[in-house]
Fold each of these.
Amino acid sequence: MKNANLYSALCAAFPSNLGSCAVETDSGLCYSWQDLEEASAMVANMLESLDLPIGARIAVQVEKSVEALILYLATLRAAMVYVPLNTAYQSAEMAYFIGNATPAVVVCTGRNFGWLSKLAFKAGTGHVFTLNDDRTGSLLDRASQFPRSHAVRPVLPDALAAIIYTSGTTGRSKGAMLSHGNLLSNALVLKDYWGWRGAEEGGDVLLHALPIFHVHGLFVAIHGALINGSKMLWCARFDPQVVLGQLPRATVFMGVPTLYVRLLAEPGLNQSVVRNMRLFISGSAPLLLETFTQWEKRTGHTILERYGMSETVMLTSNPCRSEDGPRLGGTVGQPLPGVQLRILGEAGQALPVGAIGAIQVKGPGVFCGYWQMPEKTAEEFTPDGYFKTGDVGHIDAAGYVTIVGRSKDLIISGGYNVYPAEIEGYINALPGVAESAVVGVPDADFGEVGIAVVTAKSGATLDPAGILVTLKAMLANFKIPKRCVVVPELPRNAMGKVQKNLLRQQYQN
Ligand code: MLC
Ligand code: AMP
């Protein structure tokens, strides 16, 4: 069997000088390529010693650290399935993910061990380890007793590498299953398309400031650097001042639009700070034309905007090389090599150039389905094998795609997805609430934020601030609507459906 393990491909690209720095943290620590190889070998050996079946899920909710990256690499090496979870998730959300993924191993911060281990053991998880962002925890203690060498387990391309939870339109999250083949093909395409420079061409250096529990920070950014043997400057969290301080040492930066908005607010952002930069990439949410233009004016660099999803990894990109065409603000560029993208009308007919319709895609990065949800998977694919993205847009004669909206009821806030149906479910269950509608409105910092519009049961009095406080105790902080208003009734159309477009207009300021 030809080995298609993603780790083998990443490792094969490590530079010949394994002692050189692979990851430098913002606290000044340097991890060499050899450190990544040996530490991931130790953790992989430890995972294998647990006698888990191939494909066992390793669910991870930890703060960003290089050790968390090592755990991801170890999971790949051991042919187990990595299930990263946002650190903002609270107990009810975690109970759902653990119940759905049924992980054999859960790794959490020491701070959360008490409640999370109880929850995991109850759901049948056999092992719960801790991993903190200061290189402590039972995971590393255990792994330190294992050998520093490890034979990567060979896998076929369709073997699962990760399950990424994306919220569902009906409220419950769905786990998108991504294979080694999905992730490797996308990493290789982006390596070429974005012109990553190997060490012999001066070498790219990636400034990594995104969280590592979603596709953008974990796959696009990390795979990009590793498969090119490029060093990463690692920021534990996004702090514009720290990023500005590191920019002169970097050549590539990836961010969601909010990161660019916040950097633009820094007086210290100027052409001198970005003098060594080669490429600024934006994605995960729409980049406003205003941000694109201001960035060009202030820095002299044209942001490259790309488009992707948890279910598909990256789908389209503006060109990197000028000979491939200009980077057009407001567009997400052209389909990447290997991606077939089409725009369909409401009756399922192919639309002409420029017409707005549903975006559907096919390609090597498109996932293997939703974990244990065959009906949902079937619903999201067309009979001829295209995935329905839920995004709405058009494509021009030169092949540039523009996203104009979404058919899915989704708010993207600072690059995180918030599904109104989930929040409405929680609000509707509160005492005195008759019904609610959560809508997204424009926001200068997060791009879009949620507003909750609520009606009371007859005779009940609601306290909008109290509703938000209650929600905060139950849900991840980024899901909490930024405002709550109580109204006598929600606007409805003739079919009785709540007219969210009217609410969006009414509350947009
Ligand atoms: C934090 N808050 C948010 C928020 N992030 N609210 C809405 N949307 C968000 N994204 C809350 C906080 O809980 C806090 O509330 C208040 O807003 C202000 O917080 P902050 O200190 O300003 O937030 P900060 O910690 O700085 O985080 C902002 C951020 C972060 C932009 C750095 O959200 C972030 O890292 N976003 C990147 C998300 C990402 O990587 N997405 C990729 C998905 S992959 P309170 O009440 O507690 O004070 C994908 C596919 C693809 O989409 O194509 O890439
Ligand atoms: P996620 O489920 O977190 O992977 O989010 C995927 C969604 O993010 C896509 O379906 C799009 O709606 C959105 N998205 C990603 N990149 C862009 C972009 N460059 N412009 C607009 N929307 C984007």
Amino acid sequence: MTGARKRVGVLISGRGSNLQALLDASVDPQFPAEIALVISNRAGAYGLERARAAGVATTTISHKDYPDRDSFDGAIDAALRGAGCEIVCLAGFMRIFTPGFVNRWPNRILNIHPSLLPSFTGLHVQRRAIEAGATIAGCTVHIVTPDLDSGPILAQAAVPVLPDDTEDSLSARILEQEHRLYPAALAWLAEGRVRIDGNRALVNGASASGVLLSPCP
Ligand code: GRF
């Protein structure tokens, strides 16, 4: 690749398997982004260990140490800017940002969500997909806007919902696709291929125009 790799801050709250996928992708010097900092709001998050093992700087910023969301978001913002981050990836980060924070990072925050948005926003989406009788589920990488799970969609991957699926089995099938999708979408953003038109993200020159389909079982 030509030019400097984009510096990325990854925000987590838990096990960090998507963080691991981003760390693994960025080992390749041709990958257009490098993980500069991992921030967790929970001190015991396993993802922090993954980051340390990869030699990436970590910090814990607990929402419990701040009187309100503005000051918590301000601390996150300061840490990201202090590390020179240009892009923020949410990877299982279980806090909702204030509009003020989101607006300070316009079209620069990505999130991965385990449903085919705009269906199934919010929590427990794999279980809700099964209960709703959906036959196709999947995951979405989108730009974060002040409205929860509603920003422009960069990339999606679909998987089947099988008749005997449990929440766990479907979550595992989706997670496998999350780990393919997130590095691909981050690369597109870091390479400057993404153009936002209203609530649509147009990805120029990306393979398969932002859609990844998993093989059927
Ligand atoms: C993933 O399912 C992701 O889509 C959702 O939270 C989960 C995080 O998992 N936002 P992990 O911590 O990356 O393993």
Amino acid sequence: MPGIRADILLSFKREITGNNIRIMNFIDTHSHIYLEEFDADLPEVIERARLAGITQILLPNVNSTTIERLLRVCNEYKGYCYPMIGLHPTSVDGDYEKELAIIEKELATSNLYIAIGEVGLDLYWDKIYLKEQIIVFDTQIQWALKYDLPLIIHSRDAFEQIYEVMKPYKDLSLKGIFHSFTGSVEDANRLLEFDGFMLGINGVVTFKNSPLPEAVKHIPIERVVLETDAPYLTPVPYRGKRNESAHLKYTLMKLSEIYGVLPELIAKQSTLNALKVFGIF
Ligand code: NI
């Protein structure tokens, strides 16, 4: 893709970082704004997201204790916030069967959920429950197939293990997002072997000295979706503070820089990609 003139890019940058100018629309495909970090000011957070051009915010669940808040927020902002249901790997311990049963009941008795998420493997903190995490992940992959819903996958220090669990499902109709992708070009290429999947890019791509932009350059724009993972992973210039959906514009601008295309193209293509995965809007 040919690069665009720096002055044009700069003028777009000015427009998008201005507060009230709505020049493009895009989707935050992964946000936890139902958590208590947002209890004090959620209406303002939603308003800022709308002003920034965010058209939908998709909310992955964590565990049985977060379902009520998740649904409350999605009910309050119907048509704007959409819930997913799943058991997060960091919530998996010896008691996982009870948790899974609650999640499965939600899935079977409600038609509100747009995806299974977030699920996956997390070996960053410890590996004590690796066996249990794998059982829970695999079970939820099967639910995604059974209910024909996309799968939102969290992977932390577990790339090979994620790949191993998913390998048998490669040729099936699974679709979804490898959320918070931060790997190498080689990692990206292996994940993109799963045809129905996109890579979720968030604020990490804006961090100073991050090797991620170099990898992202080689990922086809047709396989990228935008996400915040709010309240976490806040992009520069707000790194270190609470993240929120409106900050997604900084990740979008960074992608525009990396790919050398107008931000509007990133907004449009990433929205199309999200629509392809979720197919609901
Ligand atoms: Ni998350």
